[in-house]
Design a protein that fits this description.
Blueprint lengths: L23 H14 L7 E7 L5 E7 L2 E3 L3 E7 L3 H8 L2 E8 L4 E11 L2 H8 L4 H9 L9 H14 L11 E15 L7 E6 L7 E5 L2
Antiparallel strand pairs: 1-2, 1-5, 3-4, 4-7, 5-6, 6-7, 7-8, 8-9
Helix pairs in contact: 4-5
Subunit structure: Homodimer.
EC number: 1.4.3.5
Keywords: Flavoprotein, FMN, Oxidoreductase, Pyridoxine biosynthesis
Length: about 210
């Protein structure tokens, strides 16, 4: 297989300035709903990119769990994980929504901070019991010798919390990414893609600029 010959055209439709909302959150909600309606496998899946104290860049997929003007972009993780440690060092992160089936992507740049314990508890208690147990069982990002170790840890948590509700782990919670730039990308014919970036400084209004592909 020759990779240089592996290509396709982008024909899902263009994006013009008149198509955009003046508010990037409204524009994102619109595109997210269209991704959900299109039946994409993981419409809320997003890549979180961080930089750790050694300058090492890393990316991983997580699920978006809330979004809005007063909420930013919210996801949850183990506060001892490599991503959390990187955010502690450098809270500036990038999010990427790869909606490839629609020839679309959204890139978010902003600052991440921990959400309140109350918000974390509200979400944790809404999770399936198995997911709650998994949060307790996994020492996220730490090495193990075999999967059986993880399964043993899960079994231990099932025994520990065999009766009653499962409490929220103190090492687990959410992050809110408050953006200062959001880019919407729509694939175009002959690689003439449409790109629009919303950006702001501080609490100023959002500005919109069109970028060359």
């Amino acid at each position: 297989m020759s990779l240089k010959d592996h290509r396709r055209d982008y024909t899902k439709g263009g994006l013009s300035r008149s198509d955009l909302s003046s508010d990037p959150y409204q524009q994102f909600d619109r595109w997210l709903q269209q991704a959900i309606d299109a039946g994409l496998g993981d419409p809320t899946g997003m890549v979180v990119a961080t930089q750790d104290e050694s300058g090492y860049l890393w990316q991983r997929m997580v699920l978006l769990k809330d979004v809005g003007v007063d909420k930013g972009f919210v996801f949850f993780t183990n506060y001892s994980s490599s991503k959390a440690q990187a955010i502690d060092h450098n809270p500036r992160v990038s999010l990427h929504f790869p909606w490839n089936e629609l020839d679309r992507q959204v890139i978010v740049g902003g600052v991440a901070s921990k959400i309140s314990k109350l918000e974390t508890a509200h979400y944790f208690l809404s999770r399936p019991r198995e997911s709650q147990l998994a949060a307790w069982a996994s020492h996220q990002s730490r090495p193990i010798s075999a999967r059986s170790v993880l399964e043993q840890q899960l079994h231990a948590m099932k025994e520990k919390f065999s009766h009653g509700d499962i409490p929220v782990p103190d090492f687990w919670g959410g992050y809110r990414v408050v953006p200062d730039r959001i880019e919407f990308w729509q694939g175009g014919v002959n690689r003439l893609h449409d790109r629009f970036r919303y950006y702001r400084e501080g609490e100023s209004d959002w500005w919109i600029e069109q970028l060359q592909p």
